[in-house]
Write a structure and sequence with these properties.
With 98 residues, the protein is an all-alpha fold. The chain contains one helix and no strands.
Length: 98
């Protein structure tokens, strides 16, 4: 069966692809292709890392906002718990009035 590499390509298939690239681009073109491929992969990786950092920053901002809102709500609940409720107002019974 052979060793599986990227995208489910076996070693024999990879050799055929490399032979085709060598024949199509020549010995002098292969290093340029490899260099370009390396730069492209680095740019994709850097862009991916930047997206991950942005997502993490956004998640941290949301987490911080939720935590501040939670603290604020908790402080309001604690303040209301400290204030005694107003005494009930005695209304005269409407049925006893005249």
């Amino acid at each position: 069966m052979g060793i599986l590499l990227l995208f489910d390509i076996s070693g024999g298939e990879l050799m055929v692809i490399l032979l085709f690239v060598l024949m199509f681009f020549g010995a002098k073109g292969v290093p340029d292709i490899a260099r370009t491929l390396g730069r492209t992969m680095r740019q994709v990786r850097d862009a991916s890392n930047e997206v991950q950092r942005e997502i993490q920053r956004g998640a941290n901002d949301v987490r911080r906002t939720v935590e501040e809102q939670r603290r604020s709500l908790q402080d309001q609940v604690e303040q209301r718990a400290e204030v005694p409720p107003p005494p009930p107002v005695n209304k005269p019974d409407e049925s006893t009035e005249g």
